[in-house]
Amino acid sequence: MKHLKETAVFTALLLLLSCAVPILAVETDGIGPDETAEIGESESLPETEPAEKQLPSIRISGPDSACAGDTVTLNVWLNGSERYLRGLQTKLEYSTEKMLLSDISCVNGWKLDAGTLSQGTGVPILVIDENFELPVTSEVRVFTVTFLLRENLTEGDTAVIRFHDTRATDWENVSDPQNTEDLPVEDALFAVNVLPPRSDDASLRSITVSEGKLSPAFNPGVLIYSVTVPYSVRYAEVNALPNDEKATVRVSGTALQVGSNTVTVTVTSESGIVWVYKLSVTRQKDPNYIPDANNSLSDVRLSSGTVSPKPGEKTDTFVVYLPFETDKLTVTPVPASKTASAEAITVDLTVGINEIPFTVKAEDGAKAEYLLYAVRHPAFGELEDIPIYVPETEPETEPETVPETVPETVPETDPVTDPPETDAVTDPTGPEKPEKSGISALWLLPAVLLSLIAGYAVCALLHGKKRKSEAAPRKEKSKGKTK
Prior knowledge:
Layout: H1 2-27, H2 33-44, E1 57-61, E2 65-67, E3 71-79, E4 85-94, E5 99-106, E6 111-115, E7 123-128, E8 139-149, E9 158-170, E10 181-185, E11 188-195, E12 204-209, E13 224-229, E14 238-242, E15 248-252, E16 259-268, E17 274-283, E18 297-302, E19 317-322, E20 328-335, E21 341-342, E22 345-348, E23 352-361, E24 367-376, H3 397-401, H4 406-409, H5 438-482
Parallel strand pairs: 2-11, 13-17, 19-24
Antiparallel strand pairs: 1-3, 3-8, 4-7, 4-9, 5-8, 6-7, 9-10, 9-11, 12-14, 15-16, 16-17, 18-20, 20-22, 21-23, 23-24
């Protein structure tokens, strides 16, 4: 059985081979071995044609709605579709009754080679990559176009912009800039819908302050108000609501100092009109505060000349000398205290002495009066008429400061007379000793001097005798030696 099975399998293989050989002989009839190899290779690696590149395209972007009178800027995008585009030429068409062309500008390194801002359809535009540095291979924004919508447009109008007859320059061979090809580009449209006119309403519907009450009562047409708040309020909380919900409101100056403050409420309408409301907010002083009473001066500033003496030297009178050419003078007092106040004064000067009084008011209301003498010299040639300022003095002050009471306080007394008698009852300490006279004291001085002179003479005399007595023995000894 085993041999029978092997014989059957071998017979089947022979039958298959006998059928395949005639088929191969028919297909390869008349073809050499080399040609058969080439056919096999071509059948295994078939050649495919490259896919055709898409044409370039342009796209417009920008606001699709605007109000009459608005400025609209549109962006023009160029899609290279895997090409090397270095130029774009197109024509711009729009309605001059609805819009005005105001600007054409290139971006991203491209240059406007030819263009015009003439109004009307068919405005030519040519933009190029002049230096062959920024070719467009994908989508790139290459230029912008700006229009102004006319004021006569109404809600519902549509302003249409169209680019037509557009061609893009393909710079496919980078090594050969002259080898270029102009490719057609489909037209592009863009429409701007006109919205209702913007509101000019910049008024407020209401305005309130967290502390205090407005004066006068709020009225949208009244722009200035005043309000007083207690000392404890450091910030003004102002709530302002616009009459038009599209208007914007801005509040500034809410930090409060003691005294007068200005809070500003600025309202800007949708169309750009601005109204400014002002609140004069007075913050009261600390109940325990003691106002400053200083009304002195730290300086007196003059529009011409220098004041004398220098302020701050406890004087209320000043003087300044001015040439004839100075016919007007402005005096600006500068208080020493920041809380004090003083007003500047401007006066016309005459030749001679001009008196200019001014006042400094302290915080507590106390006033100090000052006086400036402005001496204006006469014209040249009239020097004999130069006025001399002599400050006036008050005659009653000298007798008070230096009273003539010397005869009463120091009476002349006779040294010979007896001392006055005193009542023993009124003076329990005993009788008064007589006062020494000034004359007797004068006599003592010569006596002392005479005594000193006499003493000096006696001493000199005694000293001379002693020297003579000592000199005699010396002479005798000297004589003995000479013998």
